[in-house]
Write a structure and sequence with these properties.
Elements (H helix, E strand, L loop, with lengths): L27 H7 L27 H8 L8 E2 L10 E2 L22 E2 L38 E2 L22 H4 L45 E2 L2 E2 L2 E4 L21 H12 L6 E3 L7 H4 L5 H9 L5 H9 L10 H21 L4 E4 L21 H13 L4 E5 L6 H6 L6 E8 L27 E6 L6 H19 L3 E6 L16 H11 L7 E5 L5 H15 L14 H14 L22 H17 L2 E2 L8 H4 L3 E3 L9 E7 L2 E3 L15 E3 L3 H9 L3 E7 L6 H23 L8 E6 L2 H11 L1 H7 E7 L14 H7 E5 L20 E3 L7 H21 L44
Parallel strand pairs: 1-3, 2-4, 7-8, 7-9, 9-14, 10-11, 10-13, 11-12, 13-14, 17-20, 17-21, 21-22, 22-23, 23-24
Antiparallel strand pairs: 5-6, 15-16, 16-20, 18-19
Main location: nucleus
Protein name: histone deacetylase
GO molecular function, one term: histone deacetylase activity, hydrolytic mechanism
């Protein structure tokens, strides 16, 4: 389908709508076989109603043929002219010998393409037949040379080509009669390089990849009817080798958007025997009217005009965009990429095929309505969504984008559309990961106007997300929403740069996980689902991942996944996404709080603060410490308490800890708490009791809330640090030389405690007798400054779990800045579990350390701050095996 507005001089040569692989890959053994020869091995099943046509018979000279063989590495853009003969020319050939040589990508010439006239029929194999079709291209590529004399001999494939009687049987959804079965060509690609008869036999080898789940490459067809409820049961695909003409002509041969990406996926499907069970749809370009469903006329014209530009002009236009390269063939390749996807979507929408996969490039999800970007010229999936609505009357479209990059272009096209849901699961990295828009890619970008709630972003805060995290996101967010939305059609922007092995995405998704995700999606919309290739830059990863998705569409068995245990970062991210999206989807339990204006709203932390003040006064006669600093006073007004003899010479403990664990149960259908089923685990009450009843003074500081994100942690840490510094300066410093001072921190308060010690390092080294740090879980161990490292090593003990990552470095040189690290005697656990168990061991160790110190009088006990020596920060005893810790540390004990 060609729009009249596009210049014919920039079309590419086809054979029945295709260019064979030899036009692209003429290196090594293939160059010897295919110099100047275009052949193919099969005739794809044609879904169009047009009558078959064949080519004009022409002749070439020896001098003309040399024009191709002189430069075998450079693919050349060529032009199709309409055939005029109505009968195919059929001859016999010798047995072909398939070639396994992998094609290489070469820089194309960028002058005006050369016109040729080409046969509209195909030989059975891509190796050199007895009689060949020769294409002559003028050595002078500054202008096209129209060829009118080309000899075309079409090799008869092993399965006999029938007359027009077999044409009706080739229509999708119609089972051929017994008389025509032998005449129906096997399905496959014209460039497969495998004889038609062999494609139904041996399955070729799959493309292995280390570190990934194995994908079963044998594809055993299952007997099933061709039509169910008026719809075909076949899986369709589109692939056109001409899309590889879009190449980077400006010197970067290692560009990640490699033209071989689509060839690798195609080869994987062919070798696994999938293509013989699939329907190949005819290739076409998108029309200008179709592109205009999403893109502005100015943008379409800019891309179209690149076909007439020279090398320097192409470079200037490419540099005006973000991460784009261009060649003279880029415009037609982009139209082919989009047009092929539209053809596949149309076939699925009308029931000619059940579902399908579009092996297309250039990709599209970064292309915005008015500009290209991120390797994308036109937004294929966005255009397909509008095309389905306009041409097929499908109203509700669900677009899932699992490419590792956020699809900014697709999102922008539908932000205010209530009938199209766009869901992206991508790396975010605090808004720095490409495309680098911290607002557009954030989880709270939910759409605008009538489209509010129809935009769903699942932003991973870091790399390393794998099967467990993606499957968790599917079960918690994607599947509930998509079932509630009940789409008429599902489009997948199937980028494979989140796959294990991709050096850009740096995630760990296996082919099996891609298969499972595809399997879940294909149960929706009556099975109307199309996967369109986006990114993916490891050639082996995209091959095995694309194969896994295709096999899922074909209903082949999917390899089992391992245990699905998502990491804490994933769980927290999904929790935050649900909190935002639960406002708009009834299938998600509400997790938001909408305060009612004019009514009194009290934070639960304030209620707990009042409880704690009452409890500490009744039990220990402790009072609230006066707080006057406005920068943090509101957060800690009810969270800082002290004993009444604060200025005595008794030992003083400064204890900073979390509020405890508040465990609540909601009503189920909403987020209203059931007070009778909600409890707080006060894990520090016994610590306070032990300190006070042992004759010590205490300043008790409660961290009012547990920060959930990195954005919340830093401000809270700074507030706590400022609070500790004020308490030290106003209530502790003046009695420091007359008493023992113990610093005790658990949970998030550890970071503020260490930050405070770094702020007041001279006073700390002089007055503090012992510092105890219990970070909890697998939290990072905070570090003091280098100047405080020697003192901290001698006066601290830091309790971490037995499986904490720091123990992996036990035999390496460790910094004294982390303190004297000891094992807790247990694997990682919550503080509510570890603090009760560590109760006795901690106080035994504190008492032992204090007793080992010299007496307070004479004042020689004061410890002077020492400058670190060259090796002071790299002592091997910075981490020990726990022998310096009392044996009670690994004994379970109740307070």
């Amino acid at each position: 389908m060609q729009d009249a507005s596009y210049p014919e001089s920039h079309e590419l040569a086809t054979t029945n709508g295709e260019v064979t692989e030899e036009m692209m890959d003429t290196t090594g053994a293939e160059a010897e076989e295919s110099s100047g020869v275009i052949t193919s091995n099969e005739t794809p099943m044609d879904l169009s109603p047009e009558e078959p046509t064949t080519a004009t018979t022409t002749t070439t000279t020896t001098e003309d043929t040399a024009a191709i063989t002189n430069e075998p590495n450079e693919p050349t853009a060529v032009t199709v002219s309409e055939p005029s003969v109505t009968e195919p020319i059929v001859t016999e050939s010798a047995d072909p010998a398939p070639s396994d040589t992998e094609p290489t990508t070469a820089e194309p010439k960028h002058a005006e393409p050369t016109d040729i006239e080409l046969a509209d029929a195909e030989p059975a194999d891509d190796t050199e037949p007895t009689t060949t079709e020769q294409i002559v291209i003028d050595e002078d590529t500054t202008k096209p040379t129209t060829i009118t004399d080309t000899v075309v001999n079409i090799v008869d494939p092993p399965s006999t080509i029938s007359t027009a009687a077999a044409t009706g049987a080739s229509e999708i959804g119609l089972s051929p009669s017994p008389q025509t079965v032998e005449n129906e060509l096997p399905l496959g690609d014209a460039t497969s390089g495998v004889p038609a008869s062999s494609e139904t036999g041996d399955d070729g080898p799959s493309i292995p990849m280390s570190g990934q789940s194995a994908v079963v490459t044998s594809a055993t067809p299952r007997p099933q009817p061709d039509i169910i409820d008026g719809r075909s049961t076949k899986t369709g695909y589109v692939y056109d080798v001409r899309m590889r003409f879009h190449q980077n002509i400006h010197g970067d041969n290692d560009h990640p958007e490699d033209p071989r990406r689509i060839w690798k996926i195609y080869e994987a499907l062919k070798n696994a025997g999938c293509l013989t069970r699939m329907v190949k749809l005819p290739s076409r370009e998108a029309t200008q009217a179709e592109l205009a469903l999403v893109h502005t006329a100015e943008h379409i014209q800019t891309i179209t005009d690149t076909a007439k530009m020279d090398r320097e002009q192409l470079l200037d236009v490419a540099n005006s965009y973000n991460s784009i390269y261009l060649s003279a063939e880029s415009a037609i390749c982009a139209r082919l990429s989009c047009g092929n996807l539209l053809e596949l979507c149309s076939a699925v929408a009308t029931g000619k095929v059940l579902n399908g996969v579009a092996i297309v490039r250039p990709p599209g999800h970064h292309a915005e309505p008015d500009e290209a970007g991120g390797f994308c010229l036109y937004n294929n999936v966005a255009i397909a969504a509008r095309f389905l609505q306009k041409e097929h009357g499908l109203k509700k479209i669900f677009i899932l984008d699992w490419d590792v990059h956020h699809g900014n272009g697709t999102q922008k096209a539908f932000l205010d559309d209530p009938d199209i849901v766009y869901c992206s699961i991508h790396r975010y990295d605090d808004g720095t990961f490409y495309p680098g828009d911290p607002v557009a890619a954030a989880l709270d970008m939910i759409g605008v106007g009538e489209g509010r709630g129809k935009n769903i972003n699942i932003p991973w805060p870091c790399n390393g997300m794998g099967d467990a995290e993606y499957i968790y996101a599917f079960h918690k967010v994607i599947m509930p929403i998509i079932y509630e939305f009940a789409p008429d059609f599902v489009l997948v922007s199937a980028g494979f740069d989140a796959a294990a092995g991709d050096h850009i995405g740096e995630n760990l998704v296996s082919p099996a996980a891609y298969g499972h995700m595809t399997h879940m999606l294909k149960a929706l919309a009556g099975g109307k689902i199309v996967l369109a290739l986006e990114g993916g830059y490891n050639l082996e990863s995209i091959a095995v991942s694309g194969l896994a998705c295709t096999k899922a569409l074909l209903s082949d068995p999917i390899p089992a996944l391992g245990s699905i245990i998502p990491n804490p970062i994933c769980i927290q991210t999904i929790h935050e996404v649900l909190e935002v999206q639960s406002r708009y989807w009834k299938s998600i339990t509400p997790m938001f709080i909408d305060p009612i204006e004019g009514w009194n709203v009290v934070e639960l932390s304030k209620v707990l603060g009042v409880y704690r003040s009452d409890f500490l006064y009744k039990e220990h006669r402790m009072l609230k410490l006066p707080i006057s600093n406005s920068s943090y006073g509101a957060d800690f007004l009810d969270n800082v308490h002290c004993t009444q003899q604060l200025y005595s010479t008794k030992p003083l403990y400064i204890f900073i800890h979390n509020v405890g664990e508040f465990r609540a149960r909601t009503m189920g259908a909403n987020n209203i708490l059931r007070p009778d089923k909600s409890k707080m685990l006060d894990t520090v009450a016994h610590y306070v009791e032990r300190i006070v009843q042992s004759g010590n003074e205490l300043i008790d500081i409660v961290v009012p809330y547990q920060p959930a994100t990195e954005d919340d942690k830093e401000p809270l840490k700074d507030k706590l640090t400022e609070l500790l510094c004020d308490i030290w300066d106003n209530f502790v410093y003046m009695t420091g030389d007359t008493r023992r001072i113990v610093l005790l921190a658990a949970g998030f308060g550890c970071y503020s405690m260490i930050s405070f010690m770094n702020e007041r390092q001279k006073d700390v080294a002089r007055y503090v007798s012992c510092a105890v740090v219990v970070p909890g879980g697998d939290e990072a161990v905070p570090m003091v400054t280098k100047r405080l490292a020697n003192w901290y090593m001698d006066h601290s003990f830091v309790v971490v779990a037995d499986d904490h990552p720091i123990w992996e470095r036990v035999n390496q040189k460790m910094s004294n800045r982390t303190g004297n690290i000891v094992r807790s005697g247990r694997p990682s656990e919550r503080l509510s579990e570890s603090l009760p168990r560590l109760y006795n061991p901690l106080f035994v160790e504190i008492d032992r350390r204090i007793k080992a110190l010299p007496p307070l009088n004479p004042p020689s006990y004061m410890l002077n701050l020492q400058e670190p020596t060259n090796n002071s920060d790299n002592k091997t005893n910075g981490v020990n095996d726990g022998s310096s810790f009392t044996e009670a540390m690994i004994i379970d004990s109740e307070p």
